[in-house]
Amino acid sequence: MPSVLPDGDPVPTSGELPPAALDGLGSRPFGFYVHVPFCATRCGYCDFNTYTAAELGPGASQRDYAETAIEEVRLARRVLGDAALPVETVFFGGGTPTLLPAPDLVRILQAIDKEFGLRPDAEVTTEANPESVDQGYLETLRAGGFTRMSFGMQSASDHVLKVLDRRHTTGRAADAVREARAAGFEHVNLDLIYGTPGESDDDWRASLDAAMAAGPDHVSAYSLIVEDGTRLAARIRRGELPMPDDDVAADRYLLAEEALTSAGLRWYEISNWARTDEARCRHNLLYWTGGDWWGVGPGAHSHVGGTRWWNVKHPAAYAGRLAAGSSPAHAREVLTEEDRAVERVMLELRLASGFPLADLAPEARTACARALAGGLLEVADFKAGRAVLTLRGRLLADAVVRDLTAG
Hints:
Elements lengths: L18 H4 L7 E7 L16 H4 L8 H16 L6 E8 L7 H14 L2 E11 L6 H9 L4 E7 L3 H7 L7 H11 L4 E8 L6 H14 L3 E6 L7 H7 L8 H17 L3 E4 L2 E3 L7 H7 L3 E5 L4 E4 L2 E5 L3 H9 L5 E6 L2 H12 L6 E2 L8 H9 L3 E4 L5 E4 L1 H5 L1 H9 L2
Parallel strand pairs: 1-2, 1-9, 2-3, 3-4, 4-5, 5-6
Antiparallel strand pairs: 6-8, 7-8, 10-11, 11-12, 13-15, 14-15
């Protein structure tokens, strides 16, 4: 089942933000995340806030979801006031957003445009399972203003997909990429997962080869994480499957770096490679570089001006709050300057552009010197002086961040 929401401070029923959160509104990049919490089946490794038809219960309707989400977009406009906030990026995630009819996704996008205005060059992405779209569906999205598709390929091995409880067959992801290109999408991402129990080095190489053959201009590759409460965790606990091995995962990452770089993609974030700067996911860059975003949907998280909040989880509770004219926010936190400084290191150090040495806290500079001497960091752009993770540093990124933010 989905993980539990964190505690936090109460949120006014109006959704009103602290005045300090609105300071500088419009001077930072602004985007929308739209969470669509529906899945045809639950994948065995997934602990996202998603629901199958059997799990929805009374008071929640996939049919009415678009209008409910649009109501939250209208709430966002009331809360954020009349500040000019042209939207740079919109990202539909889930769940499987493409379980909704394509016109519903377009209507939500149109509501964001009506209330806030999309920049002429706005990036608009939706995630999709390969089997959940066809040529006509993709053409409707492209005509409706979507600019980028992200398909969950995960693996090119049938036995690995079976362990992950994925429904699509090998080859379908490549077909979906070709259909997206034919529909006019210039930017297409494939998501891959490595380290699944039973996956071999040859399986992973085959997945990388198949992904490259499909012709995406962006690839995301993530190490499998076994989350408590998932079917995968239960199978491992019962001894049916082995626990993923960290050393194996590191080797798989090195294989990904070699294969993707050889195919002309460059890493720009630890788990993401793009063929060109234009192919990078601008929405995720907004997260990693301290932008503002409003998260629409049950369980969605938002951040504006150092205030972070998260919505109630269940679609029925979410719909009920909005129907009553109330904010669907469950709780929030106001980040201190220290919190924000730590998060900035955690996020920016993941990027190939690195972190400015001059902005490191004095107590972090000794740890930085150790990481430089140990070959985990290097200095790029000597004039600006930015610390960038080496390839070995990417494998140990969490430890590097811990050292730089300790104390």
